[in-house]
Protein: Phosphoribosylformylglycinamidine synthase subunit PurS
Amino acid sequence: MMKAKVYVTIKQNVLDPQGSAVQGALHALGFGEVGKARVGKYVELELQTSDKNEAEARVKAMCEKLLANTVIEDYRYELEQA
Amino acid sequence: MMKAKVYVTIKQNVLDPQGSAVQGALHALGFGEVGKARVGKYVELELQTSDKNEAEARVKAMCEKLLANTVIEDYRYELEQA
Structure:
């Protein structure tokens, strides 16, 4: 079995209202040192496969088809034996 | 300046409906090898500080106060010079 960790982030030049809200809330709580804040998604998947190359291709396809909206989001992933 | 990467995940024994939805959608798309799926948050913060120990304590406080709901969520973070 393998475990995939997928990180989906909003592209650098796309507006991130959730990040702005987090930044504002942190400032209001007294954390004035916080500059830019960006909020993304983190997905952990268990995969019933042991072939790392195949898993890599499959996870990439999952990101493209469902997990990330590639128009406005970037993704990266890590695979590990579990 | 430092950069903090915060990962917020739902605790192991707490129900994760968003994860179940992702798992179901991936199955429906033909990714039958996907076992458990868990969805969390990923937050990137820029911090106007250069003291790593202080930054660490501040980020921990941000997680406890705002970024994570520690009743049902776990968090971890990484700090790096940026």
